[in-house]
Amino acid sequence: MTTTQDERATEDLKALAEQAGRDLEDASALEILQWAAETFGKRFCVTSSMEDAVVAHLASRAMPGVDVVFLDTGYHFEETIGTRDAVDAVMDVNVITLTPRQTVAEQDAEYGPRLHDRNPDLCCKLRKVRPLEEGLKAYQAWATGLRRDESPTRADTPVVGWDEKRQKVKISPIARWTQDDVDAYVAEHGVLTNPLLMDGYASVGCAPCTRRVLQGEDARAGRWAGRSKTECGLHG
């Protein structure tokens, strides 16, 4: 079978990601993002849930004016939208807001109300996964705020890896950080954070599917509480 030019380019990109994951494992978050900026330029973006703006802030130091992609699902807390607007106003980034094909009302009309209660995987697919797939088409690499200490499902997150689903380089510059590291960076640089983090929420997602965490629970326990679901599908 003949290998096409596109297939070769994809294999080269995958090999680049896997090598960088090994080479940059012990690098600082800023060094990882500087590598991404130098390697991909405008074909690199940051995604942010606006739980905090730590990775966006780091990326703006490595690449001023970097694109920061935000998914507006239509179900966000007001505080999350406010954090997005503040980040756009005060940081040296270009916030890009992606929206689903359907409004919440249109989705309710087609699938019935409160789809997130009856079929949360489908709701996430319609309102998060598909919009992100469309929004990332212009990029070769994207950065996330995933950390290994957040939950068992994220314990093996590489600092640079290969996103097989989207055929892109996936960068998690703070994968090795702890919550203490995040808090220290926020304090040192005055980074914007979602006010809900001061109100008992350890991880902030869509309002209908997010609750405050209890003492001793991991940071992701407040997401889809009472269900086996732990991820929205963006990262697996």
UniProtKB/TrEMBL annotation:
Instruction: Identify its protein family.
Output: Belongs to the PAPS reductase family. CysH subfamily.
Q: PANTHER family of this UniProt entry?
A: PHOSPHOADENOSINE PHOSPHOSULFATE REDUCTASE (PTHR46509)
Q: Does the keyword Oxidoreductase apply?
A: yes
Report the protein name in the record. Adenosine 5'-phosphosulfate reductase
Q: What is its EC number?
A: 1.8.4.10
List cofactor names only: [4Fe-4S] cluster
The free-text cofactor remark is:
Binds 1 [4Fe-4S] cluster per subunit.
Residues of the Phosphoadenosine phosphosulphate reductase domain: 49-211
Q: Which Pfam families match?
A: PAPS_reduct
Which catalytic reaction applies to this protein?
A: [thioredoxin]-disulfide + sulfite + AMP + 2 H(+) = adenosine 5'-phosphosulfate + [thioredoxin]-dithiol
**Pathway, according to UniProt?**
Sulfur metabolism; hydrogen sulfide biosynthesis; sulfite from sulfate
**The protein's role, per its UniProt record:** Catalyzes the formation of sulfite from adenosine 5'-phosphosulfate (APS) using thioredoxin as an electron donor.
Its localization reads: Cytoplasm
Point out the gene that encodes the protein.
cysH
Annotated residues for binding of [4Fe-4S] cluster: 123-124, 206, 209
Keywords recorded for this protein, A-Z: Cytoplasm, Iron, Iron-sulfur, Metal-binding, Oxidoreductase
Q: Which InterPro entries match?
A: PAPS/APS_Rdtase (IPR004511), PAPS_reduct_dom (IPR002500), Rossmann-like_a/b/a_fold (IPR014729)
The entry's active site is: 232 (nucleophile)
